[in-house]
């Protein structure tokens, strides 16, 4: 193909190929970014609309059933004022009182309590069953306040049927206005379970119904231990109460799953309902499509690589320079040990390897005792020489190629010991103490045995990422215990409630 000379020269220009190599990934990022953002937005819009629709359906069903129960309670209140009621026998009185009582398989007990909290009328039995309810929250609430109206009680196990239920009650006043008892109706929690079970929310989806004080009435999927748990004060519930209705993304205080919460009050009742969809499940479909877009990105990346090969030599030279810069950026300039940045990277890798392979990981946090005293007495130059001496002692104490000695700040050092159990770590700690005992700076009269270090040791497998905190705590114990010693954080990998006290390993 014939190309004009001027165009051919530009095509052979390195600057032109550099421009192509920049435009290709830019185009890749723009196209894939816009597509992914639009797809992700669609997925979230669909999830939000689905949540709102489900919430509305559930809220209306619950509000309708509670309204039926409340109308029944008001009817019983009215019937209690019927003339001549007291002269009727028990069966006829039961018929009159509860003639308008709702009946359904999820409706629980319904009865009338007198001012002493004893059942005097029972919709389910004649004569009334015997039970005392003076300790129930609804009885105490109505007795203390005559203006409560409909009161929604805590979820309880019925004393008459043994079933889980939630109670609704209204106060009965005597002619003089004093407390005369209450009428109570209940709704079995099985009603909520059957209602929620009809809804598919994915494996990590959830539906919760709370009282306004934070008490969980029920949850889907149902677990007995969840009933009655109070989550007041959590970030999620505080937003439920503060905002009344809406949606947001938050991590569950119950199981740590990140969810999209859509919530509202149930009518005018002191009930809060939420539908929660797992963020991972909301985005699952979007992620699958993202794989396809990723294939396009790989093609564009291939073009970028092809263009980049034209500059191989230059890239190799720059790569070598970059590697040297990285090495310098990971090295402590005073001691020559690895610095904090390199330690943090190596520590993350070692933790991941330990948790994957099950091999132990140990950590020693070493701190020079009374270092400030040396600095103040002899000056910073001697302090620096002391730090370099300590670095040599630490390097001499480890012999495995994957062990790493680091200076993480000031006079604090860390020895990272992969594939080393507690016994091995204690041997290394003993070697550190032995090496430091030989450290001397003759020019200023610091003799061997003068300089000492305190060491905190932690060793474990599971939850290895928490070793540093345990080792640091052990170091503080070593300091508080008189310095020049090693303290071991026993069973550092176990749950916090099971950890044993720190043990002293002699300096």
CATH class of the largest domain: Alpha Beta
From the 3D structure, determine the CATH topology of the largest domain: Beta-Lactamase
Give the domain tally.
2
Q: Examine the secondary-structure arrangement and name the CATH architecture of the largest domain.
A: 2-Layer Sandwich
The CATH superfamily of the largest domain bears the name PAS domain
**Helix content range:** 40-55%
Separation, N- and C-terminal Cα atoms: 81 Å
Strand content: 15-25%
Overall shape: it is elongated
Q: What is the average of the pLDDT values?
A: 84
Q: What value does the Rg take, in angstroms?
A: 36 Å
pLDDT < 50 stretches: 492-507
Q: Label the structural class.
A: alpha+beta
Q: Main beta sheet: strand number and arrangement?
A: 6 strands, antiparallel
How many helices does DSSP assign?
14
What is the number of beta strands?
Answer: 17
């Amino acid at each position: 193909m014939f190309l004009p000379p001027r165009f051919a020269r530009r095509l052979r220009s390195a600057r032109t190929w550099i421009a192509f190599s920049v435009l290709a990934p830019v185009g890749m990022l723009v196209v894939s970014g816009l597509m992914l953002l639009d797809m992700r937005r669609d997925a979230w819009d669909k999830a939000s609309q689905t949540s709102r629709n489900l919430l509305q359906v559930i809220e209306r069903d619950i509000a309708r059933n509670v309204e039926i129960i409340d109308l029944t309670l008001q009817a019983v209140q009215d019937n209690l004022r019927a003339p001549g009621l007291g002269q009727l026998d028990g069966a006829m009185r039961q018929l009159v009182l509860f003639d308008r009582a709702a009946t359904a398989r999820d409706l629980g007990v319904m009865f009338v309590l007198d001012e002493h909290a004893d059942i005097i009328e029972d919709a389910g039995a004649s004569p009334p069953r015997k039970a005392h309810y003076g300790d129930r929250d609804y009885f105490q609430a109505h007795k203390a306040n005559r203006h409560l109206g409909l009161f929604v009680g805590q979820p309880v196990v019925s004393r008459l049927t043994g079933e889980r239920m939630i109670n609704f009650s209204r106060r009965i006043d005597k002619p003089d206005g004093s407390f005369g008892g209450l009428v109570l109706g209940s709704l079995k929690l099985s009603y909520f379970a059957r209602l929620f079970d009809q809804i598919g929310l994915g494996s990590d989806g959830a539906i919760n119904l709370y009282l306004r004080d934070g008490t969980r009435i029920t949850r889907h999927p149902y677990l007995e231990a969840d009933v009655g748990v109070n989550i007041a004060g959590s970030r999620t519930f505080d937003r439920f109460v503060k905002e009344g209705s809406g949606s947001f993304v938050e991590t569950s205080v119950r199981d740590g799953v990140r969810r999209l919460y859509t919530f509202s009050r149930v009518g005018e009742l002191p009930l809060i309902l939420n539908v929660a969809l797992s963020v991972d499940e909301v985005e699952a479909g979007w992620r699958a499509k993202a794989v396809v877009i990723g294939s396009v990105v790989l093609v564009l990346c291939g073009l970028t690589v092809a263009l980049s090969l034209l500059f191989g030599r230059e890239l190799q030279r720059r790569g070598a320079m970059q590697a040297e810069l990285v090495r310098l950026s990971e090295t402590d300039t005073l001691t020559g040990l690895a610095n904090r940045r390199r330690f943090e990277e190596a520590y993350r890798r070692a933790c991941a390897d330990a948790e994957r392979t099950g091999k132990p990981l140990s950590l020693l946090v070493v701190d020079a005792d009374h270092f400030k005293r040396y600095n103040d007495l002899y000056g910073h130059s001697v302090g620096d020489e002391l730090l370099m001496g300590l670095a040599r002692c630490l390097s001499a104490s480890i012999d495995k190629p994957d062990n790493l000695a680091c200076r993480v700040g000031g006079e604090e050092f860390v020895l990272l010991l992969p594939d080393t159990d507690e016994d091995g770590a204690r041997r290394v700690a003993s070697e550190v103490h032995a090496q430091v005992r030989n450290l001397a700076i003759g020019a200023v009269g610091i003799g061997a045995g003068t300089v000492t270090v305190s060491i905190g040791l932690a060793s474990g497998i599971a939850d290895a990422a928490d070793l540093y905190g345990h080792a640091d705590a052990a170091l503080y114990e070593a300091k508080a215990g008189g310095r020049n010693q090693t303290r071991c954080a026993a069973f550092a990998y176990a749950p916090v409630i099971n950890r044993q006290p720190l043990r002293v390993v002699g300096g």
